């Protein structure tokens, strides 16, 4: 099972693993959505096909940044709720610590996205 700190680190690392944006990857790799009658997907395919390599990279990065922003915002909200309203996250019956490294959950996530080590591993 692990200590509460191990569970916290695993929780954050699992969110890091969910970071990859399917839309970003589809644009970057010029992957089209399957044929459909959905006007929105048709428009997305048309735009995807029209992009040159430079624009493809820019749009792909914009999509990834948007996903990262959403994950970050949810972690900000969770962290605030933990500090202000007593929200607790429990994994396998063990309560995760709140700001175990003196930094916010969203900060820990950003640091791990940047391939940083955990403060207790330095």
Describe the structure.
This protein has 122 residues and is mainly alpha-helical. The chain has one domain (4-121). Helix content is 61%, strand content 3%. The protein has five helices and two strands. Helix 2 runs antiparallel to helix 4. The model has no long low-confidence stretch (mean pLDDT 94).
Characterize the main sheet: 2 strands, antiparallel
N-to-C SSE string, H for helix and E for strand: HHHHEEH
Q: Quaternary state, please? A: single chain
N→C terminal distance = 23 Å
Number of helices: 5
Give the proportion of residues in helices: 55-70%
Across the major sheet, the strand order is 1-2
Strand content: under 5%
Give the overall shape, derived from the CA principal axes: elongated
Please count the beta strands (DSSP E, at least 2 residues each).
2
CA radius of gyration is 19 Å
Number of domains: 1
Give a summary of the structure in a few sentences.
The protein contains five helices and two strands.
């Amino acid at each position: 099972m692990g200590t509460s700190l191990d569970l916290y680190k695993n929780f954050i690392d699992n969110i890091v693993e969910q970071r990859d944006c399917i839309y970003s990857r589809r644009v970057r790799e010029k992957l089209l959505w399957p044929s459909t009658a959905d006007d929105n997907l048709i428009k997305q395919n048309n735009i995807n096909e029209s992009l040159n390599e430079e624009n493809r990279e820019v749009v792909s990065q914009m999509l990834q940044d948007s996903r990262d922003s959403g994950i970050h915002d949810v972690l900000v909200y969770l962290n605030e709720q933990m500090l202000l309203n007593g929200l607790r996250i429990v994994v396998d019956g063990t309560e995760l610590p709140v700001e175990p490294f003196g930094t916010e959950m969203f900060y820990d996530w950003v640091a791990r996205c940047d391939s940083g080590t955990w403060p207790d591993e330095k």
